[in-house]
């Protein structure tokens, strides 16, 4: 009887979540390809890429709140049959995403002084700025693409996004091979070549997804791009008020990891390169949970639109259980095969490779420790975004990551003298705190009827 109750939710969650997971993994695979190929080019270049991507991601996290937040709004509007709300929310999210991306490009153009001010080595900071002066323009494509992804996911049409994202992987590998290493007569551009490859793929994917969103027969009634230039100020305000806390939440979480990158840079270039590899491996598994979190937002948003508390509860239990299973499998992989996983990123003939593998393999032990809590914190955020609860989660994230995670990381790494392992124990502490508080908030609110207006459960 219990299985029959949850089976429809499991099928629906996997049908929606797996393409979203695939899209995130494909997008992550593009970043992995960059990291591996730049790592083959040089250790200093790899360290520069780690810092540059961290800088880029902080701005991306702040701007992505509009694209993520609109997913729950659209799912709820579709459940209510409100076509106007679907159009105005998606369109104004695109406006806000585009405006934000254009506004922050100058920060990436002049990033070297900022990186030097936070203690990065001059050679690393210079190369990171070279990367960001090109790759920074890709933020426009990434944020608009994210909004369109949410628009399609809310309509339970994520499959084409997956295929478009997957198509970018061989393209970026080919362009990296040509531009990073100087093949086929091209100059060897190093990190600048990786940046050129990245923006070429990002804008190609944006055009493809926009074309699909305009063509999709079931979406034509929303007329997303018709008179696109017309503002909808109330709609923009609604998306802004929902999306800004999400962006700040993402910055708080991303800031925990970027802060660990910066502090690892204080320890040394080899340690930073090893840290970047271990963190990217952990990020790959995070993409699995992020896809399920997106599915949770859509499923919970649909339940909210119908005012169905039991449906919401069952959908929430299902997506949480799926993510917990994924976390257990990831934990096993990190603990059983650390050196093999790290070795994929480095040239075996490079003299520094054995030392970097030793450091990174040790850090994967701690990555295994936070798999479950990392899963639960992002699922908790997805559940809460489905009920359009974003402000309190923003506070929870700030407290967990900046008042718990960063101080613990710094204290263990530098005050207690533990070094790189101490930084990763700080990550474990911050993520565990966030997971407990976010999950408690959603399930307590559901039991009290806060999210559906129903009477409290007894």
Automatic annotation (TrEMBL):
GO molecular function, one term: antiporter activity
Keywords: Antiport, Cell membrane, Ion transport, Membrane, Transmembrane, Transmembrane helix, Transport
Residue runs in coiled coils: none
Listed transmembrane segments: 47-80, 92-111, 131-148, 160-182, 194-217, 238-260, 272-290, 311-334, 354-373, 394-415, 421-439
Its membrane topology: Multi-pass membrane protein
Record GO biological process: monoatomic ion transport
Keyword Nucleotide-binding: no
One annotated Gene Ontology cellular component of this protein: plasma membrane
Protein location: Cell inner membrane
UniProt cross-references to Pfam families, sorted A to Z: MatE
InterPro entries: MATE_fam, MATE_MdtK, MdtK-like
Record-linked PANTHER family: FMN_FAD EXPORTER YEEO-RELATED, MULTIDRUG RESISTANCE PROTEIN NORM-RELATED
Name of the molecule in the record: Multidrug-efflux transporter
Source species of the chain: Paracoccus denitrificans (strain Pd 1222)
High-level lineage: Bacteria, Pseudomonadati, Pseudomonadota, Alphaproteobacteria, Rhodobacterales
């Amino acid at each position: 009887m219990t299985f029959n109750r949850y089976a429809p939710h499991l099928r629906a969650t996997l049908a929606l979540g797996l393409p979203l997971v695939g899209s995130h993994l494909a997008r992550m695979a593009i970043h992995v390809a960059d990291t591996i190929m730049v790592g083959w080019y040089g250790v200093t270049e790899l360290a520069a890429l780690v810092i540059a991507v961290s800088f880029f991601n902080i701005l991306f996290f702040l701007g992505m709140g509009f694209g993520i937040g609109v997913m729950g709004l659209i799912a709820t509007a579709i459940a209510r049959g409100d076509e106007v709300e679907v159009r105005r929310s998606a369109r104004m999210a695109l406006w806000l995403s585009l405006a934000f991306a254009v506004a922050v490009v100058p920060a990436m153009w002049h990033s070297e002084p900022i990186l030097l001010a936070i203690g990065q080595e001059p050679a690393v900071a210079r190369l990171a700025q070279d990367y960001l002066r090109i790759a920074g323009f890709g933020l426009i494509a990434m944020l608009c693409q994210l909004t369109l992804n949410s628009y399609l996911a809310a309509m339970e049409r994520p499959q084409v996004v997956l295929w478009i994202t997957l198509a970018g992987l061989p393209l970026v590998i080919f362009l990296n091979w040509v531009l990073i290493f100087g093949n086929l007569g091209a100059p060897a551009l190093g990190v600048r070549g990786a940046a050129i490859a990245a923006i070429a793929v990002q804008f190609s994917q944006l055009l493809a997804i926009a074309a699909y969103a305009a063509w999709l027969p079931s979406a034509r009634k929303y007329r997303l791009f018709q008179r696109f230039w017309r503002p909808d100020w109330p709609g923009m305000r609604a998306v802004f008020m929902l999306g800004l806390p999400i962006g700040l939440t993402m910055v708080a979480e991303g800031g925990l990891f970027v802060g660990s990158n910066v502090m690892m840079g204080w320890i040394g270039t080899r340690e930073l390169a090893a840290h970047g590899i271990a963190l990217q491996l952990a990020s790959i598994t995070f993409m699995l949970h992020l896809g399920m979190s997106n599915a949770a937002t859509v499923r919970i948003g649909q339940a909210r639109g119908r005012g169905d508390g039991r449906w919401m509860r069952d959908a929430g239990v299902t997506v949480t259980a799926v993510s917990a299973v994924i976390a257990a499998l990831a934990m096993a992989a990190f603990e059983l095969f650390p050196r093999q996983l790290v070795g994929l990123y480095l040239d075996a003939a490079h003299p520094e490779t054995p030392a970097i593998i030793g450091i990174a393999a040790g850090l994967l032990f701690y990555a295994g420790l936070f798999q479950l809590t990392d899963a639960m914190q992002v699922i908790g955020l997805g559940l809460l975004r489905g009920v359009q609860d974003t402000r309190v989660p923003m506070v929870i994230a700030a407290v967990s990551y900046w008042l718990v995670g960063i101080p613990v990381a710094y204290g263990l790494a530098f005050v207690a003298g533990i070094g790189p392992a101490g930084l990763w124990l700080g990550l474990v502490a911050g993520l565990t705190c966030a997971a407990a508080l976010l999950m408690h908030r959603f399930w307590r609110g559901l039991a009290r009827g806060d999210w559906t207006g129903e009477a409290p459960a007894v």
